[in-house]
Amino acid sequence: MGTKSRETIYGASVRASAERATEARKQADRLACVAWNNRMLGFQGPAQPSPALGDALNAGYRYLEVKCLGCNTHQAVALNIVRRPKTTPIHELERYMRCKDCSEIRGYPYKRSHLVALRPNKISADDPPSTWWPGER
């Protein structure tokens, strides 16, 4: 009749606020992941506290780089296929990491691995493994 609905009056501002909150959450997750990466690459740890699995995925980091301490190979583990709750901190994934090559040689699951960094893409020739300090090979 003569009145406007609440959707018409407040709808645009509510949607804009929700969009800004989503963008702020994504930025906060990105900054937490960058801080964790800097701590891991600069000081080689400690891995705790680490961002949650869901936070890393929200920030655009889809892979976790892991180094095997037995054969010194670097592997990228896809975070979107990890079967853990999205609230699981990244550092808790370290105990589940196994090196396939070392396990086949030894005949039992070999689990000496070290978390290196979160990555937005896989390890490739264009995007080599991370280095911990300038003199590392």
Task: Describe the protein's architecture and organization.
With 137 residues, the chain is of the alpha+beta class. 38% of the residues lie in helices and 13% in strands. It is built from three helices and three strands. The chain has helices at 6-43, 53-59, 100-106, and strands at 63-68, 74-78, 113-119. A three-stranded antiparallel beta sheet has the order 2-1-3. A hairpin with a 5-residue loop joins strand 1 and strand 2 (74-78). The protein starts with 5 loop residues before the first helix and ends in an 18-residue tail after the last strand. 19% of the residues are buried.
Give a quick rundown of the structure.
The chain is of the alpha+beta class and about 140 residues long. The protein has three helices and three strands; from the N terminus they run H-H-E-E-H-E.
> What general form does the structure show?
elongated
Helical content band: 25-40%
* DSSP summary: helix tally: 3
Q: What structural class do the secondary elements suggest?
A: alpha+beta
Cα-based radius of gyration, to the nearest Å: 20 Å
Straight-line N-to-C gap: 75 Å
Strand count:
3
Order of helices and strands: HHEEHE
Report on the biggest sheet.
3 strands, antiparallel
Largest sheet strand order:
2-1-3
- Average pLDDT, rounded to a whole number, is 85
Low-confidence runs: none
Proportion of β residues? 5-15%
